[in-house]
Write a structure and sequence with these properties.
Number of helices: 16
Strand content: 5-15%
Largest sheet: 9 strands, parallel
CATH class: Alpha Beta
Number of domains: 1
CATH topology: TIM Barrel
Shape: globular
Radius of gyration: 20 Å
Length: 402
């Protein structure tokens, strides 16, 4: 099993004191931004990625967000390029470029450059992005799906065809031959995260693209619904699901006990959920349907008992308490002693049938010294067991086949 660390790169200063009611002000003006703190934020995370490489982690994950302290990776490609020159073996997972929002030929060029800079270590994640990003870039949410699929076709054709032309709804090109080309042929691996949307699952299956299916919960929940539907769609497209098709996210924190982990990591998890997660954004699926981002049938495959969680109400995040965090830690977080962390993560990977785990260690702008201590502790006490573990089956897919 491969182990990545997924790093949101949040602004290092906590801004709880700015919360008005239950929300951080949006837009958040320049008076609240300190460039010296941004410099420190980038320096600290680059140092952490070098340490991940030295300690033998398999990869690091970057993502893209805009106009928020939630994450300072407006361009994940810039961060991946920097990491490419500072690391030797670490895979660079851009998870992902928000391809509906950007000029796709430029993305194809930049990603090919990163693959060359890293000597073939790029994993090119593609995503649609959250509603806030469309507001920022003045792109209608109703165009998200069509722009995503068109951009993906352009990027992959630019990578693989000698000379290509394309006449599309949003972008058109004539007689383009890409320079440089990716090191990995026919192109770098492409992955995509799935929150809930049925259409995204169907697209991934048609294109045989590996997915990260929803949030990891102790009982499986929506994640199991996504995997079942994905397996069914893969089979319809002539593919068979394997653990290589799946990766999962997992919260991890090592302490003397689970209660101690909640005490130490809980406040940062709360800050992420209550203050950062929905900053300037609406998470509710009902509102996303009204805006045309989701279709009326996007959740049709989800079992009735999981529909409440699929609604993704902002108040569920903004009203979270430390008691809620403690309950989650008891149910499914890989928080606690090294043995508890190891066993929880292996159980989650086996339950999902996933070959890759994305660790979320520093959620909520955790202080740098704690983050560094955690990645070192994890590398010493947990990482070898996870990397030695082999996931050989996808249980939810077997239920579909039966």
């Amino acid at each position: 099993m491969q182990v990545f660390v997924f790093d949101l790169l949040p602004y290092r200063v906590h801004l709880d004191d700015l919360v008005n009611g239950k929300a951080l002000p949006y837009p958040l003006g320049k008076a609240h931004f300190d460039p010296k703190e941004a410099v420190k934020t980038y320096d600290e995370h680059l140092e952490a990625w070098v340490e991940l490489d030295r300690l033998g982690y398999d990869g690091v994950g970057f993502n893209e967000h805009h106009t928020s302290p939630y994450g300072l990776m407006n361009s994940p490609n810039l961060m991946a390029a920097a990491a490419a020159r500072l690391t030797k073996k670490l895979k660079l997972l851009i998870y992902g470029n928000l391809i509906p929002l950007h000029e796709p030929l430029r993305l194809a060029e930049e990603l090919a450059m990163i693959d060359c800079l890293s000597n073939g270590r790029l994993i090119s994640g593609v995503a649609r992005g959250i509603p806030r990003e469309y507001q920022v870039h003045n792109v209608p949410l109703s165009q998200s799906r069509a722009r995503f699929e068109e951009a993906y076709e352009i990027i992959t054709r630019a990578w693989t065809e000698d000379v290509f032309s394309y006449e599309g709804r949003f972008w058109s090109y004539k007689n383009v031959s890409l320079w440089p080309r990716p090191v990995q042929q026919p192109h770098p691996p492409v992955w995509t995260p799935i929150t809930t949307s049925k259409e995204s699952i169907e697209w991934a299956a048609r294109n045989n693209v590996p997915i990260t299916p929803g949030e990891t919960r102790g009982s499986g929940g929506i994640q199991q619904d996504i995997i079942r539907y994905y397996a069914k769609c893969l089979a319809k497209a002539g593919h068979r699901i394997t653990p290589k098709h799946l990766s999962i996210a997992g919260n991890a924190y090592i302490a003397d006990s689970r209660a101690q982990a909640v005490k130490e990591a809980g406040p940062y998890f709360l800050y992420f959920n209550r203050t950062l997660f929905s900053h300037g954004n609406f998470t509710e699926t009902a509102m996303q349907k009204q805006a045309g981002y989701l279709s009326d049938s996007s959740l049709d495959y989800i079992r009735p008992e999981n529909l409440r969680a699929a609604q993704r109400n902002r108040e569920d995040f903004r009203n979270m308490t430390l008691d809620d965090v403690a309950r989650r830690a008891e149910e499914d977080f890989a928080w606690g002693t090294p043995e508890e962390v190891r066993d929880r993560l292996i159980a989650a990977a086996d339950r999902a049938g996933a070959d890759v785990i994305h660790l979320r260690i520093n959620t909520g702008a955790m202080p740098h010294e704690i983050f560094m201590r955690q990645i070192r502790l994890f590398a010493e006490k947990v990482l070898p067991a996870l990397q030695a573990h082999q996931v050989t089956r996808v249980p939810a897919a077997e239920e579909v086949e039966a």
